[in-house]
Amino acid sequence: MKLYKTTTLFFAILLTSFASQIAHADTCLPLENASGAIKNADFNLSYKTEPSKISVSKPFSLHVKVCETGQTPYKANLKLDATMPKHRHGMNFTPKISKQSSGLFLIEGMLLHMPGEWQYKFDLKGKDRKVQLTKDFLLK
User: Fold this and answer.
1) Torsion angle (degrees, nearest 10) of CA 86, 118, 98, 131
2) Radius of gyration of the chain (CA)
3) 101-131, pLDDT tens digit by residue?
4) Mean pLDDT of 89-112
5) Beta-carbon neighbour count of residue 60 at 10 Å?
């Protein structure tokens, strides 16, 4: 009888844990140790550079996580450009963007060729419109 109660308790705990994981499987959380984040009414976007410190004329990658309002992973495509608004130009290279999973993207081949004020421009598709999220940063 004691073995039956122990086995039942074990399976009850296991089932509760499994149900909890299923409930949170589609939850979208920001990247850990993100380099930056942008939020608006429709989206929460976080990104992390690799390497963590970017340098002039050195290639780097961006890991980007996009969540729609309500912590739903973003399922559409993402576009990115980096520009220098004061100079009215952008990067000399086109980065490669690949979707890793729902809401998670890897952007490779980023290269900022000069120091100064830069701006990331992330283009997303909203409910019935296009949305652009921007983030200004200084590259020394």
Assistant:
1) -60
2) 20
3) 999 999 999 999 999 999 999 999 877 889 9
4) 96
5) 18
Please tell me the number of Cα atoms within 13 Å of 134 on its side-chain side: 8
Q: Which residues contact 108 (CB under 8 A, 6 or more apart)?
A: 61, 95, 96, 98
Question: Which tens digits make up the pLDDT trace of 20-79?
Answer: 333 445 679 999 999 999 999 999 999 999 999 999 999 999 999 999 987 899 999 999
Residue 19: pLDDT over 70 = no
Distance CA 85, CA 87 (A): 5
- How distant, in Å, are the alpha carbons of 6, 8, 9, 10, 17 from that of 3? 5, 8, 10, 10, 21
Instruction: State the pLDDT at residue 129.
Output: 85
